[in-house]
Amino acid sequence: MVRALGGPATLVGSSSSAAAVVFAAADAPDLVNGIVQVSPFVAELKPNLAMRAGQAAVLRSPRLFGMFHRTLFPCGRPVDDAAYRKEMVARLRGRMAAVRGVIEPVAPHWTARARDVRQPVLVLMGTKDPDFKDPGAEARAARRLFATAEARMIEDSGHYPHADQPAATAAQLAEFLAVTTGA
């Protein structure tokens, strides 16, 4: 996409898609001037049997996925959350295999390519992200994988800070873009 639109660009990936920006920056450094990882999964998940069974059910049912999605906002959901989730669930019908493809681990894990990224990296994490026991530790773990990176926390935010704390997230992104674009 960056090649088609003209680059370089700063890429932003959230949650499981945070891996994609690492691969893009490592594979096409001339097209990427920086990356932002929002709520990246650093450690490869090793769920127990009950968690795997629950995950398998959620990743096969748009309705269950919508119910799970609602839990990712422990500090308050966006005003349009109900309408967003209703549309998301409707659009996921017949597409859950694609969702499973995004969630399931790929080889190599993005962390294996992090040292190949030479561009500036910003890791953003909500202080109350329910996907992580210690969101701050997860953000710092991600930061340490890169040559040039910083980790910033978004207060009173869950897994999607751009949705539940858009102003705070936009401020962090604008500050980082000033660095990556030289503006």
What report would you give on this structure?
The protein is an alpha/beta fold and 183 residues long. It is globular, with a radius of gyration of 17 Å. The two termini are 22 Å apart. The chain has a 4-stranded parallel sheet, sandwiched between helices. It contains 9 helices and 4 strands. Helix 4 packs antiparallel against helix 5. The protein folds into 2 domains: 2-43 and 106-181, Alpha/Beta hydrolase fold, catalytic domain (Rossmann fold), CATH 3.40.50; 49-102, no CATH class. The protein has helices at residues 2-5, 18-27, 49-58, 62-70, 81-92, 96-103, 135-144, 161-164, 166-181, and strands spanning 9-14, 32-38, 121-126, 149-154.
User: If you consult CATH, what is the topology of the largest domain?
Assistant: Rossmann fold
User: What are the segments in which pLDDT stays under 50 over at least 5 consecutive residues?
Assistant: none
Strand order of the largest sheet: 1-2-3-4
User: CATH superfamily assignment of the largest domain?
Assistant: Alpha/Beta hydrolase fold, catalytic domain
Strand content: 5-15%
Q: Report the helical percentage.
A: 40-55%
Please report the number of helical segments. Answer: 9
Class by alpha and beta content:
alpha/beta
Mean of all residue-level pLDDT scores: 91
How many β strands by DSSP?
4
Give the CATH class of the largest domain: Alpha Beta
Rg calc = 17 Å
| Euclidean distance between termini CA atoms | 22 Å
Major sheet, described briefly?
4 strands, parallel
